[in-house]
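Q: I'm writing up a methods section and want to include an example of the input and output format. Could you take the sequence below and give the corresponding predicted structure tokens, formatted cleanly so I can copy it straight into the document?
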Amino acid sequence: MASYVAAIDQGTTSTRVILFDADGRIRALDQREHEQIHPRAGWVEHDAREVWRRTREAIDGALARADARAADVAAIGIANQRETTVVWDRQTGEPVCNAIVWQDTRTAALVRELAGEHGPDRLRERVGLPLSTYFSGPKIAWILDSVPGARERAESGELAFGTIDTWLLWNLTGGRAGGVHATDVTNASRTMLMDLQTLDWHEPSLQLMGVPRAMLPAIRSSSELYAQARGTALDDVPVAGMIGDQQAALFGQTCFERG
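A: Here is the clean output for your methods example:
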């Protein structure tokens, strides 16, 4: 009988993998830092390949500390830094550039242009957010307009977008050999591209920012069976939860009611 649940906590500065027992107690923890890349003032990047590599290392480390195997783990959950944006090639699995981190402000001029005479709240009623450099939508637009050939490749379906949860899920479930391309509602709600009423991508926002629907992940719930892990030390363990880190903390502290 499986003894643990594996939690992958992918944060801004490091990745932790924690093994919890059936009583919710921590039985093993491994943490790996990744590089903070600052090409110029206001720009913050991560190497998404390094993030995935550190995640695999933390999985191996946590299992070793608990003297456990995949068969001892009942399920995997992912919590993540939310708005950080990755665009990658579906066939090769290679990102087209470094991930643009939530802190990054390179899209300030684009955000002002998108706001125009309508102001920063032009999309807030449907997507719940003001136009801001914080969120993923303008970051995607910047990548498509700045990386040669990226927009054409995205429109033809060659490229995939994801926040870090999506990037980890895709790699954890097979990557270019059939990895699941999905996000959950909490992470999708931080892109400035999801309609809060329909829980689907909001077409006017996609059109405003020039983001092709073909590159977007499926939006799913935060708690369901996404797929079995493939290609890591957690092979065949189901990935069964995915949620943005602030929302994970909110529910982890049982904040189920307003106030």
